[in-house]
Amino acid sequence: MQTDIRDTDNYRAAQELYERLRKPGTQSITDAVDINVDSDGSNAVFSGFLADTLHGSIPTRICQINLASGEQRVLTFGPNSDRLAKYAPNGRLIGFLSDRLDPGNFQLYLLDRSTGVARATPQVPGWVEYFHWSPDGTQILLGVAGHGADLSSGQGAIASKKRGTDAPPWTPMVFTGNENFRWRRAWIYDLASDSNRAVGASGLNMWEANWCGSDQIAAVASTGPEEGEWYGASLHIVNTLTARHRCIYTPQYQLGWPAASASGRHLAIVEAVSSDRGLVAGSLHIVEIGTNRIYKVDTKGVDITHTEWRSDRHLLLSGHRGFETVVCMYDLEASECVEIWASAVLSTSGNFATVSGIGRTGDCVIIGESFGSAPEIAVIRSGEYRSINSFETARADTADSIAGVDRLQWRAPDGLEIQGWLLTPHAKGPHPVIMNIHGGPVFHWRPSWFGRRTAHLWMLLQRGYALFLPNPRGSSGRGQTFASSVVGEMGGADTSDLLSGLDALVEQGFADPRRLGVTGGSYGGYMTSWLITQDSRFAAAVTLAPITNHVSQHLTSTVPQFVKLFLADSYTNPAGKYFERSPIMHARKARTPTLNICGALDRCTPPEEAVQFHNALLENNVQSELVIYPQEGHGIRTFPAILDYAARLTSWFEEHMPATPPR
Fold it and tell me: Per residue in 563-622, pLDDT tens?
């Protein structure tokens, strides 16, 4: 395949599809994230995507929608991106983050709702990842990462841009393992004085923090700033005035989504086995701050992914249970979790389910979507879902590409029930089937809109391919016993989960056994590389951002703890899983034509992982191509690389497993 494919049919098809989806230059809002409702429940703000061109990342603007009329308008106009808007408790101001003055350097801005004027607050020494209004609205907590700190894998796993360096270009890079710029700190902006002050908690790297009363914060923190330290982070209470801090909980696995009641008496935190920072789906715990008593809440099988106190008594939650996205309310006094709404057809935007509450009844606003429908602002009142405004942009190219969506269940060889989705084209079966393995391993497939970075999946459906989206052991939404079953065993029983799913599709007449393909990114890229060395059934494979050598992954990645956690071994053990479960060690057994794709800037699964597997395949006379995108990190996230990736993936499967079998 040539270097420049812009003059090919599949590249043009990808470009035309994304132009219909994103409508560049029209000022149309085509996607939305980060919904937040005002105090009286009449309006909501969100980050709306408006494409000027299909180049780089699509910028976001702060938008507002009236929840009664559906009328929406754009409130900010960049340049660059404005995002993560939140109303002040009194409703008069909207806080948001923007990098309008310096790309990538997000700082806090305040928008006056009465005048529509936005102003910058004093800059902090770093870029702001998130913020939270204090319960009384007089202060804002800022989560600040140093310039040069790494982004998480879910954000692209590149190093953020350093500022203030004027060394000549020949100067070497020097690393000590504990550079000051890597640290994440908490800062507080005071509205009355229009000034910032650092929360000087010495020795704490705060990955995530939230208010816990008026003069304390709860922080998920570690004693070091390296990205992999997050896996061992614990829960701390930090006094914002004295900087004194104490550890109140050391988890078995990972923590996320801290949220305290307005009084600060109770804190909600989610604990879960997690493979990526910021992607936590698991068990809800409540901490009584005065006594440090902590207890687990029965959420009726829901892996919690969002926590939001609506009063000192009521905690709004969302999460996933099997095929379903669920919204529920925990009553602290009654010690009862009540389900508000659940759907196996609709889910929400974002990596996991999130909502924004209205009042104390469990009513809320979500950004709903599905496999076939674009995001829409919707209100859930008394358990009833009602769409307010849809961002549907290319109906004929999306929903109409999918003839059927089936929820699948099958038994792995050890008897464990595994679930997944099958999206079928309009052609008659048995179908050529492409198994797409999600990242993680602790993540999952759910009804999500493909129009962001995966519209190539619609292209495959249009061409007659069926898509198999399995959720093997380790996936979210099945409880922590299911999720933790992949810990120490990655590349073990999850292998059989995937292969037995394909066996079931063949047995039931859905899949043509001669035309089975496999693809996936991150963990999915690892499993794609691994599977073709363990089983010869695949006609074609495409890997994205894979792990192929656990030793080099451990020693070159920013998250070596990931490998140690999910293999439960050490690279110093030559007879262990680091070697036995590395795809390069089994490349001699592969026969599947493989397209290996990676980003040159990826610090999570460095590009050398794809390079090694490509070379190992060639040495064993297996057809292989290697594609390295020079400006991409973990996953393909910017245009026009997205178009190029879609075209190459589609062309690879069409070449090696045509949708129409030869006569």
Answer: 999 999 999 999 999 999 999 999 999 999 999 999 999 999 999 999 999 999 999 999
Return the CATH fold of 251-393.
Answer: Neuraminidase (2.120.10)
DSSP per residue, 122-178? PPPSSEEEEEEE-TTSSEEEEEEEPTTPBPPGGGT--BPPP-S----TTPPP---S-
Closest CA to 653 of 534, 564, 542, 530: 542
Contacts of 360 (CB under 8 A, 6+ apart): 310, 311, 313, 314
- Domain locations in the chain as residue ranges: 251-393, 395-656
- Sheet with 118-120: list strands edge to edge: 82-87, 93-98, 107-112, 118-120
Q: 310-361 pLDDT, tens per residue? A: 999 999 999 999 999 999 999 999 999 999 999 999 999 999 999 999 988 8
Whether 394 shows a pLDDT value over 60: the answer reads no
pLDDT class for 180, splitting at 50, 70, 90?
A: confident
Q: 311 to each of 37, 156, 320, how far by Cα in Å?
A: 15, 36, 23
Tell me whether the CATH fold assigned to 251-393 matches the one assigned to 395-656. no
Q: Going by DSSP bridges, is the β-strand pair 594-599/624-629 parallel, antiparallel, or unpaired?
A: parallel
Q: What's residue 92's pLDDT?
A: 95
Q: Which fold has domain 395-656?
A: Rossmann fold (3.40.50)
Say how far residue 1 (Cα) sits from the centre of its chain. Answer: 31
> The pTM is what?
0.96
376 DSSP β-pair partners = 368, 390
CA-wise closest residue to 517 among 584, 426, 456, 444: 456
First to last CA, the chain: 26
Residue type, 514: R
Q: Which of 161, 149, 160 is nearest to 207 (CA)?
A: 149
